[in-house]
Amino acid sequence: MTDNMTTIGQFDLVNRPQSGLCLLRVNPWKVVMATKKAPAMSPSDMDVSEVLGKVSGPRFDEAQQLLELHREVSGAEPVVWAGRIIGFGQ
User: Fold this and answer.
1) What is the pTM of this model?
2) What range does the domain containing 15 cover?
3) What angle do CA 32, 37, 40 make, to 5 degrees?
4) pLDDT at residue 87 above 70?
């Protein structure tokens, strides 16, 4: 009898009927070395007023109104993401 092998991602599921064994092993040829990268966007400690300070004229008033509306609807405080995007919650 021969081994039956199924590959699932980086793992091989090997069934050996002659010995009654079923093995799960890492297939070294399928393992991809990945480096842990920082996410492209993450919350920052920047103050929301710093971002809004870049807005002028009537857009500033609109931004303030939207900020209050989103705060009210979401129930969360604004957070600056990636130094330029204001979001609410995680």
Assistant:
1) 0.52
2) 1-29
3) 130
4) yes
